[in-house]
Design goal:
Blueprint lengths: L3 E5 L4 H12 L3 E6 L14 E4 L5 H11 L3 E4 L6 H6 L1 H21 L4 E7 L22 H20 L2 E7 L1 E3 L17 H9 L6 E4 L11 E2 L1 E3 H16 L5 E5 L5 E2 H12 L5 E4 L8 E2 L4 H7 L8 H10 L3
Parallel strand pairs: 1-2, 1-4, 2-3, 4-5, 5-6, 6-11, 7-10, 8-13, 9-14
Antiparallel strand pairs: 9-12
The chain binds nicotinamide-adenine-dinucleotide and uridine-5'-diphosphate-glucose (UPG).
Nicotinamide-adenine-dinucleotide binds next to helix 1, helix 4, strand 5 and strand 7.
Subunit structure: Homodimer.
Catalytic activity: UDP-alpha-D-glucose = UDP-alpha-D-galactose
Pfam families: Epimerase
């Protein structure tokens, strides 16, 4: 029987890019999204979109059975670090309680494999960068804690029930499809790249740099920005590996190269050809100083390497999607 993949959160930033990548390879996919992020990206013709909650077991179960789903790629969730500090109840509800309902329904329906969007936030403040997968996991915000909890559930389901799973720990998802038809559009937008490009384009207020007293080379936070198109290709490879009967487990998806906030702003100014108005503000709660992936395990296991994540390409793609 041909494979059918259920994509939760397929109307979101990373999920919509994955839907296109899968469809371009002729894969059969169905999207489940409750629309809570308020985005409605253009998706490939013919892709079924079910409006529903991952925690609604009746909806999930009937969808899995009706479409014959044999793999799940689970992107749906709440994603803002700052909001998770002020409203942890929401993060544990969506990212843990409802996600566990999805997982349990998948088990009952005998779905053999699942890919999960995890995050660098599971590591917290790392002891050393670049960060390998077996580094200590001590999240410093409820967002990271909620994602790590779901990873623990996957591990336990794998051991007890033979579920084959991968937890793909993205570092900072960024960029956009080179066609310009998809874009990073969170509401409210909290991510650095859209905020700084829009500030440079005069569409938003000046950018605030959150802190300049971090122990990094220029005092601003360092992150590892990974293009969504590279994320999508890693997911396809991970799905194939699971389908071939292999275990995958946790994998970092990053480039291994960190960029500071100031370096990002400098590169954005070059790509924009104009200044990004900005000021320096206090630190944002829950921000680790430096998060850079050691991507070697993903490269070995998946035979994958980031291709479009160099800063000029990544920012040019992001800019094209906003103009
Ligand atoms: N953007 C990043 O930098 C980044 C980094 C690391 C990990 N991640 C993870 O990747 C995943 C996707 O992130 P994104 O940036 O595309 O976020 P996004 O907000 O654009 O997409 C999430 C999607 O999930 C949907 N959703 C939320 N709650 C739902 C529910 N209860 N039931 C059904 N659908 C629901 C939303 O409507 C949205 O379309 C998330 O799990 C996030 O934690 C993102
Ligand atoms: O107006 C802004 C917005 C961000 N930043 C800084 O820019 C960096 C990147 O911030 P942001 O784009 O908000 O991403 P992160 O907070 O690093 O979090 C992202 O990356 C994490 C993994 O690193 C994921 O888990 C999260 O889902 C995703 O939101 C951080 O140092 C922020 O302090 C600013 O200085 N000013």
């Amino acid at each position: 029987m041909p494979s059918v993949t259920l994509i939760t959160g397929g109307l979101g930033f990373v999920g919509s890019h994955f839907v296109w990548a899968a469809a371009r390879e002729g894969r059969d996919v169905v999207v489940l999204d409750d629309g809570s992020a308020g985005t409605s990206p253009e998706l490939p013709e013919g892709v079924e979109v079910v409006r529903g909650d991952i925690g609604d077991r009746a909806t999930v179960g009937s969808l899995i059975r009706r479409r014959g789903v044999d793999a799940i790629v689970h992107f749906a969730g709440k994603i803002q670090v700052g909001e998770s500090v002020t409203n942890p109840a929401l993060y544990f509800d969506v990212n843990v309680v409802r996600a566990l309902a999805l997982l349990e329904e998948a088990r009952v329906a005998e779905v053999p494999r699942i890919l999960f969007s995890s995050t660098a936030a599971v590591y917290g403040e790392p002891e050393a960068v670049p960060i390998p997968e077996d580094a200590p996991k001590r999240p410093v915000n409820p967002y990271g804690a909620s994602k790590l909890t779901f990873e623990h559930a996957l591990e336990a389901y794998g051991r007890a029930y033979g579920l084959r799973w991968a937890a793909l720990r993205y570092f900072n998802a960024a960029g956009a499809d080179p066609s310009g038809k998809l874009r990073e559009a969170h509401d409210p937008e909290t991510h650095l790249i859209p905020l700084m490009l829009d500030a440079g384009l005069g569409r938003r207020p000046p950018l605030t740099l959150f802190g300049e007293d971090y122990p990094t080379r220029d005092g601003t936070c360092e992150r590892d920005y990974i293009h969504v198109v590279d994320l999508a290709s890693a997911h396809l490879k991970a799905l194939d590996r699971l389908a071939a009967g292999h275990a995958v487990g946790p994998l970092n998806l990053g480039t291994g190269q960190g960029s500071t906030v100031r370096e990002m702003v400098d590169e954005a100014e070059r790509v924009l050809g104009r200044a990004v108005p900005r000021s320096v503000g206090p630190r944002r709660a829950g921000d680790p100083s430096s998060l850079v992936a050691d991507p070697r395990r993903a490269e070995e296991v998946l035979g994958w390497k980031a291709q479009r994540s160099d800063l000029p390409t990544l920012l040019e793609d992001a800019l094209r999607s906003r103009t």
